[in-house]
Specification:
Chains A, B, C: Its EC number is 2.1.3.2. Three copies of one chain form a homotrimer. Chain A is an alpha/beta fold. Helices cover about 35% and strands about 15% of the residues of chain A. The first copy, chain A, starts with 16 loop residues before the first helix and ends in an 11-residue tail after the last strand. The interface between A and B is large, with 40 and 43 residues.
Chain lengths: ~350, ~350, ~350
């Protein structure tokens, strides 16, 4: 039994390097099930309450399928209007009632700390699927897991890596949580590239410096990427700027496409993005012309989300060592794995 | 085979004292499965059509999970817009088509008697999950089941009990159906407490009197509760009053909190509420400060909903005697039962 | 292994007479499972991604239940707002990500050719559940399958049949796809009955003529039905007409009810309709008074949709010969089959 059994997963702050390794080890064990080489019914009969009080197709379906892949059932709730919350019910009451109906809950909610509040009333483990501007810990975990897998695949490691975070570093909860997790590793060189209006908050920078890592700060993409092992792009929403004139100043400045990549990056610089991306040319974000590039990891990154979520379900429900016991063959046509 | 196999559950009027006992006996048998002490796959492969043409998160999820707990699959439809009903299709057509797709249907709809209408076209059993102002029979059943369990737990019984119904007794379909069911028992003392504008309808009062029970009517909470075994609270919606002045007159008059309870109630007066409640202080409904009181039964009441709905599925599909035959162990972490 | 294993089902154009026969043979094998005489768990553990970017209760539930009937799990997405598509994500990206989460996808989308576009990024088979004005191939297949079953039931066959298509033949994608499939058979007499403003497009008529079939064109129902084997009705939406005056000219002219049927049709003329129908008297479409007529096939037609979709899932996942291997008994109450 690990520390995770029966516990909530609410924040990256509750995770140590040891617990990260535990999660990643279980995530690796999930690979053959996700790839349909075989399947496991370890959670046959268990029920996931998939509560998305804020819609998010990708994350919702990823949680739901992760649970199905372990053999469990999923009961879903999508949207706020459909919920008693709109009638003045407390999150505590909602949690007390809905948690009776399932064995584990994955929850997204538009308000910061709402998932933590809900967890206090829940009788079953709650996994935070994103609570407003606060956290989205499974995204941070899948990002870190991807960084590790991609680097190990080419003989590198997180310790000593050069990681460039690009785009909206001010409002992107993803990069804040990821930075916090990366701080637990050794000798990382962070290159932070953003418009000055959307720079990384001081407290995150302080955390990175206090952990002894190196930071380079820049407001332009070019010239800062030639040593990067990881290039983590995020979307810049123009409405974040004080004026359209400010927004215009930066348009196209943080765009990545095949030509820019070839010119400015090492050939094994891994390209990541939390998705969705706007891949239309005028969006100036991450163009389609890198789609078949072997260093484009954005789809493997999404695939890894499934492994991480399967691992978290297995750990919180304490079945991570019973996977093989409930294995069965896959008797239908199944897709071929990418790399 | 009981009278329920293959039948619809549309109204409390179709239930006799015998059939109530049948339902409650099966509901009791569901307890270990709901508590995850063991599980049953008796409905493995069966399909519930969970049709919520009016949203209701709590009731919808309760039906869905009850079916999952018996091993079955759930296919859901939520909202009217998504439905062909908005294109002028008759409920009969909708029922003929959708009932082919499942083994049993749970249905909520905003219009009175719509579920009955639908049932005429259905080829499978239909359970009424609430049809507008008309009925919500599974709520009445879970309320009655809770009253029985709570009283028996403290050595009392429904026969001879003193039951106070409080709040909006005019528009609350819940209290009407519950009163009808209670009429089948003996020597009950009903205390009906509401604003005069929201008093219990005459026909319900006539039913209670014709069944030989005692009625006390009051317009204030205090002074009427000191002998009550059950205190069943319902929400008063201010828009029910003819004017805001009228509403203001009653604000706070039907509120229950720890201080009022201690002053006016026996220490074993069971507190019930159909939920959701507005537990904010200014709501004047049922405060949070009773949350840990052992007589607060509102969450056990919600839990009982699961047992009642499991029982109704088992009975309408005729598997109530096969539960043990399809039992399996629970191999994952499971929550501890409350009392 | 058939040509279908691992393939997309995007258009009726990809189907030959041989492949139609393959689909229909498998659909026939699905009958005892759909009727609950027995069940099969051949897809136990498989996941359907049921992506309805445009709502359609009937089609969505039909796909979902078809998959459940084969033992599989269903993860659903309904509506556009809930999707990343609204943030400028390409269908290719959406497909790459979401297709990792399931073994097969059924998809409806309001835009023509969107499902084909999506399929290019998908790593699993995609079945078109309707892409705007373009196609709805499973509807065409279930229509053709119904025509065949109904005719064979009364000793007739598609070859040599007289088939009347009635209503909005201009915008009804259903009748276009069905006509294309019927062209593969022999010696069919098509009677095309519509307002002149809503006549069958020239390219469909050319296809029918090039395939050597006979065509009669008319703008009124009466007088053209006395030799019809099949009467396929579709809805006329009044907003299709250039003016309300034009619409008024045709009101009631294409209505079918018991009296009109008895007067103008052979007693074994099979009545079909893709549903939903507006069966209200003022709708002038297809009245309720034929509901118990043995030649009214509209509900059997909907039932056949389940068989066709089960067949397509079995074929694309390559399990059509393993159904019996995973059979189990049905241990709950089950509806009686209609004819």
């Amino acid at each position: 039994m690990t520390q995770f059994e029966g516990s909530h997963i609410l924040s990256v702050n509750q995770l140590s390097l040891d617990s990260l390794n535990t999660i990643f080890n279980v995530a690796h064990k999930m690979t053959p099930y996700a790839l349909r080489e075989k399947r496991t019914k370890v959670l046959d009969g268990a029920i996931l309450g998939n509560l998305f009080f804020e819609p998010s197709t990708r994350t919702r379906v990823s949680f739901g399928c992760a649970f199905n892949l372990l053999g469990g059932n999923v009961r879903e709730t999508v949207g706020m209007a459909a919920s008693s919350l709109s009638k003045g019910e407390s999150l505590y009451d909602t949690a007390r009632v809905l948690s009776t109906y399932s064995d584990v809950i994955a929850m997204r909610h538009p308000e910061s700390y709402s998932v933590e509040e809900f967890a206090k009333g829940s009788r079953v483990p709650v996994i935070n699927g994103g609570d407003g501007a606060n956290e989205h810990p499974t995204q941070a975990l899948l990002d870190l897991f991807t960084i590790q897998k991609e680097l190990v695949h080419s003989g590198r490691s997180i310790d000593g890596a050069h990681i460039a975070l690009v785009g909206d570093l001010k409002y992107g909860r993803t990069v804040h949580s990821l930075s916090r997790l990366l701080c637990m590793y050794k000798d990382i060189h962070f290159t932070l590239i953003s418009p000055s209006e959307l720079a990384m908050p001081e407290y995150v920078i302080a955390d990175i410096e206090n952990a002894g890592h190196k930071i380079t700060i820049s407001h332009q993409l070019e010239g800062n990427l030639n040593q990067a092992d990881i290039l983590y792009l995020t979307r810049i929403q123009e409405e974040r700027f004080p004026s359209q004139e400010e927004a215009n100043k930066y348009r196209g400045k943080f765009r990545l496409n095949h030509s820019i990549y070839t010119q400015h990056c090492k050939s094994n610089t891994v390209i990541m993005h939390p998705l969705p991306r706007d891949s239309r040319a005028q969006a100036n974000e991450l163009d389609n012309d890198l789609n078949s590039h072997p260093s484009l990891a954005i789809f493997r990154q999404a695939d890894n989300g499934l492994l991480i979520r399967m691992a978290l379900f297995a750990l919180t429900l304490g079945v991570e060592n019973q996977l093989e016991k409930y294995e069965c063959p896959v008797n239908w046509y199944s897709r071929k794995a990418d790399r």
